[in-house]
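Backbones bend. We report:
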Amino acid sequence: MSAPEDKRQAAGMAIGVSNQVMAASLAMLAILGAVFIFIMDKRSITPVGLLFVSGSFLLFVVSVFAGAKGVAAVYKRGHNGDWHYRNGDTSFQIQALTAVIGVLLFPIGIALMEKPAESLNAAPHLQHSVDSLSSVVSQNNLQLRDLIHTVDSLKEELAGR
């Protein structure tokens, strides 16, 4: 049979692992928010992609709450002298499972977002604009040359009088 101090240390380790998973889930929430804001600017949001990303978000939140519930179960029973890492076992299992599924759903949701049609066709429109601008500049150059030639001709006529 284990000494009470060994059980307390095992419970402390379970709480430590849970804290690390909570920290990872919170970090993933921050990353998810940053990437999603970036994606909103660069891609069009599809309903399926939004469903996966939203599911990932909810799973990370559930993971944090499940971990907190498991930690609370361990320390409440430990306060009464019943130190055992299995006191919050169900909550810790839910925490780990939801965090892993959230990590899997997140990149799938991002991959399911589509590039907007206008960005795919932006290059031909941009090239057309550049060609139009180049044509206008060339026409203006020709008109400027004609104007300079006309001014020079007028100067010659006035000088010859």
Notes: DSSP finds five helices and no strands in the chain. The chain has a mean pLDDT of 80. The radius of gyration is 34 Å. Helices lie at 4-42, 47-79, 89-111, 117-120, 122-160.
